[in-house]
Design brief:
Structural class of chain B: alpha/beta
Strand order of the largest sheet of chain B: 1-2-10-7-8-9-13
CATH class of chain A: Mainly Beta
Distance between the termini of chain B: 43 Å
CATH class of the largest domain in chain B: Alpha Beta
CATH architecture of chain A: Roll
Low-confidence stretches of chain A: none
Oligomer: heterodimer
Largest sheet of chain B: 7 strands, mixed
Helix content of chain A: 10-25%
Helix content of chain B: 40-55%
Radius of gyration of chain A: 23 Å
Strand content of chain B: 5-15%
Shape of chain B: globular
Number of helices of chain B: 18
Number of domains of chain B: 3
Strand order of the largest sheet of chain A: 2-3-5-6
Radius of gyration of chain B: 21 Å
Low-confidence stretches of chain B: none
Number of helices of chain A: 2
Number of domains of chain A: 1
Structural class of chain A: alpha+beta
Shape of chain A: elongated
CATH topology of chain A: SH3 type barrels
Distance between the termini of chain A: 65 Å
Largest sheet of chain A: 4 strands, antiparallel, barrel
Largest interface: A-B, 44 and 63 residues
CATH architecture of the largest domain in chain B: 3-Layer(aba) Sandwich
Mean pLDDT of chain A: 96
Number of strands of chain A: 6
């Protein structure tokens, strides 16, 4: 996939390498770099996914990173069916039925 | 990078002063004590002014519901004569869907008044959407800095939804991986943009919540003829509790019992990359609640206006499974579908109401909006996919990070008390550390008085605690 100048893209960059992380972070956190994700308009011209580019964010800041998505969208949802919730619903209805009698 | 980090941290106070427009040194005594009330008075706004500011952007005056069915359910579990009336303040009706709009309203108003062109807030919670919404209304730029993903790039559905909401209001969202370096990024952004630091912990932010306590009392007097007996407040950074309690006191409700409630996340480290996605609550939990209560100044301003131990009469925890259960019960029995994190105080109130008498009242002081990602189904799905065992049973057996146990019956919903005296002792110990670092300094009478205020206690008790610490 190739993005062209003016496309809305999402970028990723490493802000702090693992060895330079803040003192006293937990051991597992100290093993991984500190990362950033941001969105903006591509200003450096045509670029493939994974290429280092510069973007202009919605507030007009210019930042760089590698492109990871073109026209990024939201994919969060209402999850999967959780059968235990139905058990709760049924019990609550039964209990309220008993109370009202 | 290391040097950049340290250099920037050295400029921390200077950046802060410029970005919040407050010279905190004016309120310092040079020792442990600082003049909290004078800071609130000089820098904040009066209740009347805040009501005016919030009215301009449609914040506040949220409805109060009496939860008749949940009250009846609670009463069915206890002997006759027990079971307080449960009320709920529907803060989800605020423009951005949570009580945080109150804090953002005053912060953004203040920023505009001081002539800033934009605002920045560091938050993965509802505050981001609140600042973004208020900034949109007042025509200001807005940047929200979020801790969002673990090192595998996996993010909590709840946080991702909040990012979407911020963007819906026109804000720029900077998303970061897990770690305390968020503060470094935040400072860098403040310096780069010259925007206002819409910190959650400034005097105007906290004063913004005072209207919640004030309204709540007024509504209860209208409904029941008296102030509420008990108010249960979800506690994380302490601002919700501090502001609400101050508002209640200003409204004359100084006998109302203030109970803090947090989700128990014992054993999960907040800055741990691998623990990050093992929790199903991103706020309202003990991981924030306890450290912020005992070291309030750990926030992103030199002196936090949120000082919950000053106002807390009791502090309880509930488990994740109990909050999810009550979120479902609120929808099923009361016809109110609200986000899980805001229902921490609901779960606690349901249990505490059963300890109280029938003629008493207990208030669930907030709700938050719900939606994709920010709902018990996606949050439980996410937990299950992260290896957390979900089952029905006794929530007391829940192990944070390993299991979520939904109550097999409403009678399994209980609260666990946190020893408040231990927290008070911990706050005093932490405050003394500052003095002990400098051998030339001695603790003053002013310090003792301050620590007594900080812990809602008395100078004699503070002195006694200090003696035991010194031994």
């Amino acid at each position: 996939m190739t993005a062209k100048k003016g496309d809305w893209v999402r970028i990723h960059s490493i802000l702090i390498e693992a060895e330079d992380r803040a003192p006293r972070v937990p051991v597992d956190t100290a093993k991984v770099p500190y990362e950033l994700w941001a969105k903006g308009l591509l200003i450096t011209g045509k670029a493939e996914i994974g290429k280092k580019v510069e973007i202009e964010t919605i507030t007009g800041r210019k930042i760089s990173g590698e492109i990871i998505e073109i026209n990024p969208s939201y994919n969060h949802d209402f999850g999967e069916f959780i059968p235990e919730i139905l058990t709760i619903d049924k019990q609550l209805k039964d209990l309220m039925g008993e109370i009202s009698q | 990078m290391k040097n950049n980090y340290l250099e920037l941290m050295k400029r921390k106070n200077e950046i802060m002063k410029k970005s919040v427009g407050i010279d905190y040194s004016l309120f310092e005594s040079g020792s442990i004590a600082f003049d909290y009330e004078r800071m609130m008075e000089k820098v904040g706004y009066s209740l009347k002014e805040i009501r005016g500011i919030q009215e301009e952007t449609g914040v506040g005056n949220t409805p109060m519901y009496e939860l008749h069915n949940l009250t009846n359910l609670a009463r069915s579990l206890v002997p006759k004569g027990k079971g307080a009336r449960i009320f709920l303040k529907d803060e989800a009706s605020n423009p951005s869907g949570s009580f945080k709009a109150r804090r953002a309203a005053t912060a953004v108003y203040h920023a505009k008044k001081l002539g800033f062109s934009g605002v920045i807030a560091a938050t993965s919670g509802n505050y981001g959407a609140a600042v973004a919404s208020q900034a949109a209304m007042r025509g200001m730029n807005c940047i929200i800095v979020q801790e969002c993903y673990d090192s595998k790039g996996k993010g909590q559905p709840e946080i991702i939804e909040k990012a979407r909401k911020c963007e819906a209001f026109g804000a720029e969202v900077v998303q970061l991986s897990v770690g305390p370096e968020l503060f470094y990024t935040f400072l860098k952004l403040l310096e780069e943009t010259g925007y206002f630091n819409a910190s959650l912990y400034t005097p105007f932010g906290i004063a913004g919540v005072e209207t919640l306590g004030y309204e709540l009392n007024k509504q209860m007097i209208e409904r029941t003829g008296k102030s509420p007996d008990t108010v249960v407040i979800t506690n994380a950074g302490g601002g919700n509790l501090t502001g609400t309690a101050r508002g209640l006191i200003k409204a004359g409700a100084d006998k109302t019992e203030i109970i803090a409630a947090s989700v128990n996340l014992k054993g999960l480290h907040m800055a741990s990359d691998s623990d990050f996605n093992k929790k199903s609550f991103t706020t309202g939990h003990t991981g924030f609640g306890i450290p912020f209560a005992t070291v309030p100044d750990r926030s992103d301003v030199p002196r936090s206006a949120a000082r919950p131990l000053r106002y807390m009469d009791r502090y309880v925890t509930v488990n994740q499974g109990e909050v999810f259960y009550m979120t479902e019960a609120l929808a099923q029995l009361e016809g109110l579908e609200r986000g899980p994190a805001g229902n921490v105080s609901l779960a606690a109130a349901f249990a505490i109401a059963q300890e109280m008498d029938k003629n008493q009242t207990i208030i669930v002081q907030e709700t938050e909006y719900t939606g994709a990602g920010k709902h018990l189904q996606p949050q439980l799905t996410f937990a299950r996919n992260n290896g957390i065992k979900i089952s029905l049973g006794n929530p007391a057996d829940e192990v944070p990070g390993k299991s979520i146990i939904l109550p097999s019956h409403p009678s399994c919903i209980t609260v666990q008390d946190i020893n408040l005296n231990k927290l008070r002792q911990s706050l005093i110990t932490n405050s003394l550390k500052e003095i002990n670092r400098d051998k030339h300094k001695n603790i003053t009478d002013e310090d003792i008085k301050f620590l007594a205020d900080e812990t809602k206690s008395r100078p004699e008790i503070v002195k006694e605690i200090i003696r035991t610490i010194e031994l």
